[in-house]
Specification:
heterodimer, A: alpha/beta, Aspartate Aminotransferase, domain 1, Aspartate Aminotransferase, domain 2, 7-stranded mixed sheet, 4-stranded antiparallel sheet, 15 helices, B: alpha+beta, two-stranded antiparallel ribbon, 5 helices, PyrdxlP-dep_Trfase_major (chain A), transferase (chain A)
Chain lengths: ~425, ~160
């Protein structure tokens, strides 16, 4: 019998796809006891009860069947109404909105519809871990546009223009950003939109964190002049309504694009689970007050986290959205991975090394503040000890910073106990 | 006192977690700590903040307590209505909370004691004998599911993975 080389059975594109940058770290966390995790990219709130209750009720009423490939019309209408109300962009719920299995599926569909082999996709970096692999799987070539703390992890129109080649097909944006928490204002996005129009680029705009914007108002890419037609707007329910496990997202855009995405969707996913769609409908109908309360909580923790890093002596970019902080750890003399691993081993605090999000994330770590105040406080006590051991001096607190003498004493007190 | 946004947020934070220090609240709301302290002091002075309580599930530490809801009907008195009799009742330390109700009875009195015997004794000898008390109906609490907005046996622990992208 001939020996089978199983590796050869796997499509080389998939075989050569690098594993997620945090897989090794994930195993390490799993075998460590007493860990406080700030590495989780999902809300620490359970889905609000009224949404869960609507789902239970839908099951009781026997909603257990397929829906249209596009998704429940009522849900699509609610999505269209929400986009019109929030951003003043109008989509026809019948042929311009597709309900997907999370934004992840919508992203995959958009890539597969838009890209031909060799087409280039411009991606700001650091970037969410699945953007580049999704591009590669669709036959495209990811082209990264590095950003840094000095420019607020934002890209500029000039940078986009300079990255364009004859093969550039798509610009992929994610603001508020995972992992940095960066946001872009309307003016900056409008300039980028002009470049997109001038160069006939399609824009995939992942706006999953749009409701978690703390400074200013979120700008919806398709609300900008000339962008409604050339934007594939991706959004979902995971972050704003604490519904990560339900897997409901949507794509909105030109009927040609959305129709093509629906073709793939109907042969693969067929439709999103009706149970989850019923829950999403309830979220859109009655979930706004609960969502606003959650956002308020995140915002308070955001202040606490940024201040804590500053006090610790680590430079931290002030995130304007999402629920991540992205402090720079080069002052400790450690790489991102070394910092994360040593912190986990010595103080049992888990966070994600910045290089998991691409080369320009090196020197940073991603800290999720979707955690309780108690967990955050304890994690920062431990981190302060660790950073101090690495030789980083805590910030000298002097007037007129917004922190009291007693807190300064408290922080110093923590440092003295090491 | 006008309830502005900052004051409302301070109250919500403290209602949620009375342990929070003014320094922490100041950072969370991005305001000066002296301002937080000033607002809290003013709220305390005006009795808007009455107390900083801890909600304890005594069963978890093996402490047996008996709680009862007593429906009390009373005869209102000239000028003071229900208030004079009410005060005589709520002054007893055994009374944990009390409210004037509309409906078939007047006062809802929540009692706490070490045993059913102790609660029964209090009702029959102290409460029912007060002049103006027409009748009492005692309901013993079998189980507390939720108190002051807090679910006592909340099974909603953090089930998230330790790391996710």
């Amino acid at each position: 019998m001939t020996q089978t080389n199983w590796s050869d059975k796997v499509n080389p594109v998939v075989r050569n796809l690098p594993p997620s940058g945090i897989r090794k770290f994930f195993d390490l966390v799993a075998e460590t006891r007493g860990v406080i995790s700030l590495g989780v990219g999902e809300p620490d709130f359970v889905t609000p009860w009224h949404i869960r209750e609507a789902c239970i009720y839908s099951l009781e009423k026997g909603y257990t069947m397929y829906t249209s490939n596009w998704g429940l019309l009522e849900l699509r209408e609610a999505v269209a109404a929400d986009l019109a109300r929030t951003y003043n962009v109008n989509y026809n719920p019948r042929n311009e909105i597709l309900i997907t299995v999370g934004v992840s599926e919508a992203l995959d569909l958009a890539m597969r519809v838009l890209l031909q082999p060799g087409d280039e996709v411009l991606i700001p970096e650091p970037s969410y871990v699945s953007y580049a692999p999704c591009t590669t799987l669709a036959g495209g070539v990811p082209v990264f546009m590095p950003t840094g703390m000095e420019n607020g992890f934002r890209i500029s129109a000039e940078q986009v223009q300079a990255s364009i080649t004859p093969r550039t097909k798509v610009l992929l944006l994610c603001y508020p950003n995972n992992p940095t928490g960066a946001v872009m204002d309307r003016e900056e996005l409008a300039k980028i939109a002009e470049v997109a129009v001038a160069n006939d680029l399609m824009v995939i705009s992942d706006e999953i964190y749009d409701r978690l914007t703390y400074t200013g108002r979120h700008t919806c890419m398709s609300s900008l002049p000339g962008m409604r037609e050339r934007t594939v707007l991706l959004n979902g329910f995971s972050k704003a309504y604490a519904m990560t496990g339900w897997r409901v997202g949507y794509a909105a855009g030109h009927p040609e694009i959305i129709g093509a995405m629906t073709k793939i969707h109907q042969y693969s996913m067929l439709c999103t689970s009706i149970t989850a769609q019923m829950a999403a409908l309830e979220a859109l109908k009655n979930g706004q007050p609960g969502m606003r309360r959650m956002v308020e909580h995140y915002n308070r923790r955001r202040h606490l986290v940024v201040q804590s890093f500053k006090d610790m002596g680590l430079p931290c970019f002030e995130p304007g959205g999402a629920f991540y902080a992205f402090p720079q750890v080069t002052g400790t003399g450690l790489t991102s991975e070394e910092f994360a691993e040593q912190l986990l081993k010595q103080e049992q605090v888990a966070l994600v090394p910045g290089n998991a999000f691409g080369g320009s994330g090196e020197g940073f770590v991603r800290v999720s503040y979707a955690a309780s105040i108690d967990d955050l406080s304890e994690a920062f006590r431990r981190m302060t000890r660790f950073v101090r051991r690495c030789g980083v001096r805590p910030r000298v607190i002097s007037a007129p910073v917004k922190i009291s003498g007693s807190q300064s004493a408290r922080i110093e007190g923590i440092c003295q106990t090491i | 006192m006008v309830l502005d946004n900052i004051t409302r947020q301070i109250l919500e934070l403290l209602e949620d977690n009375a342990k929070l220090a003014p320094e922490e609240i100041a950072v969370m709301l991005d305001i000066d700590v002296a301002e937080v302290q000033g607002i809290i002091r003013e709220l305390e002075d005006k009795k808007a903040i009455l107390s900083y309580m801890t909600l304890i599930n005594w069963e978890k530490v093996g402490e047996e307590k008996v709680s009862a809801l007593i429906e009390v009907r009373i005869t209102p008195q000239r000028d003071v209505g229900f208030d004079a009799v009410a005060e005589r009742i709520y002054r007893f330390p055994e009374v944990r909370s009390m409210r004037l109700m509309s409906g078939t009875y007047d006062l809802a009195v929540f009692l706490e004691g070490r045993s059913m015997k102790e609660v029964s004794h209090f009702v029959s000898t102290k409460l029912a004998t007060i002049e103006g008390v027409v009748s009492t109906t005692t309901h013993f609490v079998l189980k507390t599911y939720k108190q002051d907005g807090v679910i006592m046996e909340d099974g909603e622990e953090d089930r998230r993975l330790m790391i996710s992208p």
